[in-house]
């Protein structure tokens, strides 16, 4: 046991020991913008940051014919603090009717599927098991015509 502890300590000490690293970056590019090294020409490094953050992908929402209850639900989400993951509302055809899928706010909470009048049809996913409330176990297999209705833009 003592030998195991010693070996683990030695491994941690060696792996976590500070290492000296020297990095030099030219601050002024050559006048012609090219560097010649060993007979080959390469482009000089840019003097400004060339890595831009990737803009958030914002899918186009279908704003046509949002029922009043759905507009109220969207307003309620916007009145709360931003959720992670963000709330998304998708429209599908399922079980011979148009339904709206509202993503779960977080973790083990249920996602909800509503009919066009705003009545809860089922909760297809989420919960402790991740399988929802069991009232529409075939939702993922049988939903069709996905259309993004809204997603939190914040």
Automatic annotation (TrEMBL):
Keyword Cytoplasm carried by entry: no
Keywords on record: Signal
Signal peptide: 1-17
Record-given protein name: DUF6970 domain-containing protein
Region (Disordered): 130-154
The DUF6970 domain, residue ranges: 77-152
Pfam family, one: DUF6970
Organism: Hymenobacter ruricola
Source species, domain of life: Bacteria
Compositional bias of kind Basic and acidic residues: 132-144
């Amino acid at each position: 046991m003592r030998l195991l502890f010693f070996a683990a300590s030695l491994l941690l000490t060696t792996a976590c020991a500070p290492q000296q690293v020297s990095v030099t970056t030219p601050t002024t590019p050559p006048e012609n913008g090219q560097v010649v090294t060993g007979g080959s020409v390469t482009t000089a490094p840019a003097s400004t940051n060339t890595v831009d953050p990737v803009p958030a992908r914002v899918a186009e929402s279908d704003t046509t014919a949002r029922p009043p209850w759905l507009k109220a639900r969207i307003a309620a989400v916007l009145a709360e603090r931003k959720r992670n993951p963000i709330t998304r509302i998708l429209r599908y055809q399922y079980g011979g009717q148009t339904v709206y899928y509202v993503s779960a706010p977080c973790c083990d909470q249920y996602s909800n599927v509503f009919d066009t009048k705003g009545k809860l049809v089922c909760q297809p996913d989420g919960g402790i098991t991740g399988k929802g409330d069991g009232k529409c176990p075939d939702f993922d297999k049988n939903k069709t015509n996905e259309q993004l209705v809204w997603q939190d833009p914040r």
